[in-house]
Amino acid sequence: MTQTVYDICVTYFLSFGHPASISTIMKQTGLKSTSSVHYHVNKLVRAGLVRRVGRGFAAPVVILDYLKLFTPKKESVR
C-alpha cells in the first residue's frame, strides 16, 4: 500500500501541478481513515521520498524527487 500511496502522489502532482493532500490520497486509495494514510506517508517520509508540508488532513505531500527535476539548475560560468 505504501507504494500505491507514492504512486498516487506522483500521478497527482504530474496531473495537477501541485501536491496531493492526505484527504485526496485517502479517497484515491480507498483507505477508510486519515491515520492509515498518515502511516504510509510517514513511511515515505522516513525513506526520504516525500516531505509533509503542514499538518492535518489538508496538508500537502510533496514528492522530493520531482522537486529536484523541476528546480532550475545553475549553470557554471567560465
Keywords:
mainly alpha; three-stranded antiparallel sheet; globular; 55% helix; 3 strands; single chain; 78 residues
Number of helices: 4
Order of helical and strand elements: HEHHEEH
Give the percentage of residues in beta strands.
5-15%
How is the quaternary structure best described? Answer: single chain
Structural Rg: 14 Å
Describe this structure in words.
With 78 residues, the chain is mainly alpha-helical. Helix content is 55%, strand content 12%. Helix 2 crosses helix 3. The longest helix has 15 residues, at 2-16. The model has no long low-confidence stretch (mean pLDDT 81).
Question: Care to give the gist of this entry?
Answer:
By secondary structure, the chain is mostly helical.
How would you summarize the topology of this molecule?
Layout: H1 2-16, E1 20-21, H2 22-29, H3 34-46, E2 50-52, E3 60-63, H4 64-70
Antiparallel strand pairs: 1-3, 2-3
Helix pairs in contact: 2-3
